[in-house]
Amino acid sequence: MTFDGAYNLADLGGLPLIDGGTTAYGRVYRSGSREATTDTGWLEARAAGLHTIIDLRSLGEIGRRATHPVVDESYLERFVLVHAPTENPDDPEFQRICGPHLSHPRYYADNLAMWPQKFAAVFAGVAAASGAVLIHCGAGRDRTGMIAAMLLKLTGVTTAAIVADYADAVVRVNDHLAANPSAHERSFSGDEFTARLAERTGTLADWIDGFAVRDYLAAAGLTPTQLERLATILR
Question: What is the pTM of this model?
Fold first, then answer.
């Protein structure tokens, strides 16, 4: 499964459920920034049934960069685009509390506590989609990983599979950085990468095991109908 050019793309299908079976393919995708996707990729996405794109980025992150392909904007008009940022990077309190941990699951709980209304908007967008959904941020690792983990737990996916999905995204980003050095983040290798990955996945497992996703989203304002849709979209 590919959408040509798409960065850090994965299908959330095929993951084991606690009560048996696996999640369905072709329902929810996760990725990095959508600007990396080519015209061919958007045609492939449309053919695959993609209906809604949930963009988790802040406004300042959105837009084509010099390294991105030039795309016919009419292709994007075929999708429902929901801009639902999970954070406000200009908020001093957010930077004080979450800033030191933005590439780590350690900040998830604090981010969720600060802006439940932002996360309600994300999941309302997923619930409203009448076809497949793509959830993305910049790298497709932590903001996307946080939302994916919550959706997968609500679906009934095993903790081990939720953690493995996140780990795969971390590996894909690290491999990309190794091949495409960035001024903002570097890749790691060998024992250093192994240790960093183990520390992050351990934190994620502890967080997701102790987090009552349904209760949080209900308190944030999602309806029972929306919650049922979210719990079954991948089944």
Answer: 0.96
